[in-house]
Specification:
Elements lengths: L7 E7 L1 E2 L2 E9 L2 E5 L2 E3 L6 H13 L1 E20 L2 E19 L9 E8 H6 L8 H10 L23
Pfam families: NUDIX (PF00293)
Keywords: Hydrolase, Magnesium
Protein name: Phosphatase NudJ
């Protein structure tokens, strides 16, 4: 039997204030890269919950998603010691309201710092992006792409899988 293909599900935030976008500089196998505050969806959390958690962990800001910017697929391959790794990401990108900053909070492991960049600065640094989705999410946001949060339904079984159907 062949192994079932499973994309890595991630959540990301497109956060803009006064013409600047909040990004993180993070350590990756490819070096120091720019990314939206983003990360993997954890078990027993909705995509909006995961997005809020990731923003807090990576930036020390509270964040409340208010709409979905889009759903994105990307794929890349990287050389590893044991061969070629093939990775596909399914990203849920949200925009919303940036809340309070917690100056006492440490940033997540691997996050070097947060940066605020204009759209033009972000476009000019594509070679430093973690993936092409960083730019695509921003461009979709700037075009006004917005979907209601209800577009992504999280069933109660997510939090209580033992409940009878």
């Amino acid at each position: 039997m062949t192994q079932r293909w499973k994309p890595s599900v991630t959540v990301a935030a497109v956060i803009e204030q006064q013409g600047r976008f909040l990004l993180v500089e993070e350590h990756t196998p490819e070096g120091l890269r720019l990314n939206n505050p983003a990360g993997h969806l954890d078990s027993a959390e909705s995509p909006t919950q995961g997005c809020s958690r990731e923003v807090l962990e990576e930036t020390a800001y509270a964040f409340t998603p208010t709409y979905l910017v889009g759903l994105y697929l990307s794929r890349f391959q990287r050389q590893r010691a044991d061969g070629l790794e093939d990775v596909t990401y399914l990203r849920f990108a949200y925009a919303g309201t940036l809340g309070a900053f917690d100056a006492q909070r440490s940033l997540d492991t691997g996050i070097e710092r947060t940066v605020w960049l204009t759209a033009d600065e972000l476009r000019a640094n594509q070679n430093r992006h973690r993936s092409p989705l960083v730019l695509q999410c921003m461009e979709d946001y700037l075009r006004g792409q917005r979907y209601p949060l209800e577009l992504v339904y999280a069933d109660a079984s997510l939090w209580n899988p033992a409940a009878p159907l």
